[in-house]
Amino acid sequence: MNNREYINELNSELKQLKDEDLIPAFFLMEMYIEFDSFRDFHKELDRDFMQKFIQRLNTIKELSEIRKAILDYYSDKYWECIDDYLREIENFRFDLKNRGRDLSKYKTDKRLLAFALNYYDNKFNRREKTINYIDNNFYRLLFIIFCHPDYSQSKTTLDRIEENYSQLINQHSIHFEKNDNYDFYRWAKKYMDDQEKYRSRKYSPTTDEEYKMTVNIIFDKIFDDNEDIYSSLKEKLSNAWYQKKYREKNKGKKPCHYTLTKRTQEALHILAFKLNTTEDKVIEKLVNEYYVNNCVDNLGNSLY
Question: What domain of life is recorded for the organism (predicted)?
Fold first, then answer.
């Protein structure tokens, strides 16, 4: 075959690949450009090469653009180069363990995608952390499951991730059910941005739904990492929101003054938070309960 025939064959092969397959196809091409070979495709991530590859990948807006990039590169190469590349494409079509898997849910469910990426990030060594510089989260996942030396050879890892995520959603479909409104989510993002422990600044939501999604993603990560820390940070944020709403509700009102010890005042504040009411209502409730239990007879008549 002449070069044109090889290019036509390459074009045909690329059209048969799913868009998701184009990430490893692009990785192979960039590897050939860098090393003039397809060396150790699944054996090692070279740091210098990864930096160059990620810079190039971050310019890709749509996966379909990769087909044109590959064709443009090989259009003026000798037929032997094209033939070698076609052979590598054929190999990974059979070798990649996660190929053929339905990945559409990772595109539509941003919480699932973020949960999966957090799982992998917790497993990465220092060298592998370079992968996190891939801007597009879905591209990053595709790179991990198709090009990472270990995870490209494992089908069970994604199975485990999906099982863990299902358990999380069953337990916490929404992390703040009592405060499930857009005002809360916008306030919560700003509050967390001022608290380093939440690690929320890397997220940049713009719509109400994105704010809600972001808060849930952050607490998915915290819950998956450490349930004790999750409980503590969740309660701290809920308490701060309660205090904000309480101040707004009572702004301009003349407060009732009670002479209470510091410990009792703290206990009153906690009770109000737990009961989701005001401190005045807590005092009223406690006084009435004590009065009924200690100051009236069985018929409800006052003893005094």
Answer: Bacteria
Cβ neighbours for 60, distance < 8 A, ≥ 6 positions apart: 26, 66, 69, 136, 139
Copy the structure tokens of residue 32.
């050939």
* Beta-carbon count within 10 A of 41 CB: 18
Query: Can you give the pLDDT at residue 1?
Result: 60
Q: Which one, of 188, 199, 242, 239, lies nearest residue 222 by Cα?
A: 199
What residues contact 102, with CB distance under 8 A and at least 6 apart? none
What CA–CA distances, in Å, run from 275 to 37, 79, 162, 246, 279? 67, 75, 36, 13, 10
pLDDT band at 25 (very low <50, low <70, confident <90, very high): very high
Strands (E), the chain: none
- Give the pLDDT score at 292: 77
The 10s digit of each residue's pLDDT in 212-229 is: 999 999 999 999 999 999
Sign of torsion, CA 196 199 205 209? negative
Full 3-state SS string of 45-71: CCHHHHHHHHHHHCCCCCCCHHHHHHH
Closest CA to 58 of 130, 148, 158: 130
Mean pLDDT of 121-135: 92
Which residue matches tokens 């306030």? 187
